[in-house]
């Protein structure tokens, strides 16, 4: 019959063998969502000090949570040495939260941030950054109007607006622009195979481009392409076999909006190479969509809808030519405020 071990995690955590599992503040928030259970959900874990746990530890928790992204954040430098979880015991969670109330936009109050999908770490994730800003503002009580995050993609600033009882809480994120390039060599055959799986052929495709900086393919559909975009139902096992993930890890399909007069363009994003068959709403995809559609439509500020099952709207403002940046914005809603066990090994 075999044997098993059953562990109950007390408020202060548990030691299994020689390993300390500490209970740390844990949130989930929906980004680009005006109501709960819409937009794109992300998990946020607040770490007790300025040390990163081992990558495999963070990856294991992200796989267990199994949202499209889990964000791990360290407290700012101005919070001091952090919290000794073993000494604080059951009071550690509130003490850790208090460190993050100091989050802001000054160098000493910047928040180090990393993102993990269920299968791997990624270099940029807009929706999980917006979700993290939501958790810090609503779940922790950080009062600064702007919060800066130190990431693999540089310093990203989330500027808050609303949330005062008269309007919903929203954030605008300043992200690096990932303007698509025309050449798709040397992976043209792989991209053609992916398009075949997604669309059943090339007939509806106007153009295909590659954003090498964040490993995304941008597939633009011809006029009257929105209906086809909304109907895509791919074989994901076949899609992931089209490429090994070395040059691109996701495919954006986009078209000019025709069915909704409140948005300018529509899109969907498929990323089985990152362990996410279809991402509900993708901030990083809009760092490519913004420069493309702003150039095409001649407007710097646009509104896009990502037509996944959950769906969500994203406001983009393009500064690609002047600053090589894109502002990506939308509302955020805190869903869960709790705790999660994490192995504190470094």
TrEMBL record:
GO cellular component terms listed in the entry, alphabetical order: cytoplasm
Residues that span the membrane, as ranges: none
InterPro entries noted in UniProt: Phenazine_PhzF-like
Molecular function per GO: isomerase activity
Highest rank taxon of the organism: Eukaryota
Pfam families: PhzC-PhzF
Keywords for this protein: Isomerase
Family, per entry: Belongs to the PhzF family.
Name of the protein: Uncharacterized protein
The organism of origin for this protein: Palpitomonas bilix
